[in-house]
Amino acid sequence: MKKLVKITLIFALAGLFVYTIWFLYQKSIQKPVTYKTISPVKMNIIKKTVATGAVVPRKEVNIKPQVSGIIEKLFVVAGQKIKRGDKIAQIRIIPNMINLANAESRLNRARLAFENAKLDFDRNQKLFEANMLASADFQQFRLALNNAKEELDAAENNIQLIREGVSKYSGKSTNTIVRSTIDGMILDVPLKEGSSVIESNTFNEGTTIATVADMGEMIFEGKVDESEVGKIKPGMELILTVGAIDSEKFKAWLEFIAPKGVKENGAIQFQVKAKVDLAKGVFLRAGYSANADIVLDKRDSVFCIPEAVLLFENGKTFVEVETKPQVFEKRELKTGLSDGINLELISGINPNDRIKDPNSANSTQDK
Q1: What CA–CA distance (Å, rounded) separates 4 from 16?
Q2: What kind of fold does domain 37-44+300-356 have according to CATH?
Q3: Which of 149, 243, 255, 343 is most buried (most C-beta within 10 Å)?
Q4: In the chain, where does the domain assigned CATH 2.40.30.170 lie?
Q5: How far apart are CA 28 and CA 31, in angstroms?
């Protein structure tokens, strides 16, 4: 019995030894490396740079009052379309007490002067009619009366202007009614009825009552990095992606490149402007954020290969073309435009050739 156990143990150890040798041998055998292959694909290739910015109206105007006072009535709301000359607001003037007091004093003096000139005129008119006063002398009293009447009218107009912002001779014309200066849409009405406003003049910008813009003509305003600005020029095509309408692309045409850059976050940025080509029925709201792909160059329907399959030696470009299953030979290429991912193929291989993907080692071959 002991002999049988001993023999069994010897065979077990021998079997384990043989299995270990076989396992180590299998591990030492190098498995063949396989690669995926690809073929050139016909596609459009676009070389571009990106500008970030927003879509804004080309014509946007802040409407400001010509008199200071309080908004008595608003005639518009945001989003409303208006024409040039349409009413926006009515201003109730709060007169300056010093100016009002001076105007009242002037009116009183003018009234006294007119009454005095009228008495002189009436007295001397009787003498003139009785041929006791020469015509030339009487003409002086008539002139004095007319001058006094003119001064009285001017004083009355002045006090009416201070109190109401309109004179009796101006008819319907008044600067207390604020009107639109362009056709367009009301973008914003930042004030409410009862708010105080300051007139626009030489020394003061004035209070904005409403913002009006022509929404039928939009432009893209963005910024381009200094490393890219030398590659662009007016007239280039832009492909615009609006954040709020990411399902649709818009075409735009570069119109302006700023001659001076601005430093932002440690980099020099140059402002650019482009006219947006709006499709019929499409409405873009002012201030939409957008990214513009500026097309530097493009090729339509050309054969391309990924840049990842390229090999570079001594300033030349190569790929490895499959001649037999998993057998490759190196061929020199002539390439064209690149978008950073794909590369235009000009010559060196045929559209039906299978090209080795060097980054797919030990993968199953793509049939």
Answers
A1: 18
A2: 2.40.420
A3: 343
A4: 49-57+215-297
A5: 9
Query: By CB neighbour count within 10 A (0-12 exposed, 13-18 middle, 19+ buried), where does 61 fall?
Result: middle
Task: Provide the token pair at 340.
Answer: 């950073």
> Would you state the structure tokens that stand for residue 248, as one six-digit string?
């649709």
Q: What is the pTM of this model?
A: 0.61
Block residue for tokens 């009535």: 73
Question: Which whole-number Å values give the CA distances from 193 to 96, 240, 261, in the listed order?
Answer: 21, 40, 42
pLDDT of residue 363: 44
Specify the residue for token string 């007490």. 97
Query: Do 339 and 46 touch, CB atoms closer than 8 A?
Result: yes
Distance (Å, rounded) from C-alpha 169 to C-alpha 277? 49
CATH no. for 49-57+215-297 = 2.40.30.170
Buried b (16+ CB within 10 A) or exposed e, 211-240: bbbebeebbbbbbbeeeebeebeeebbbbb
Phi-psi region of 79 (alpha: psi -120 to 50; beta: other; left: phi over 0): left
Domain with CATH 2.40.50.100 in the chain: 62-93+171-213
Q: Give the pLDDT confidence of 201-251 residue by residue, as tens digits.
A: 888 889 999 999 999 899 999 999 888 888 888 998 888 989 888 778 899
The helix/strand/coil state of 245 is helix
pLDDT in tens, 128-167: 888 888 888 888 888 988 998 888 888 888 777 766 666 5
Alpha helix (H) residue ranges in 195-282? 226-229
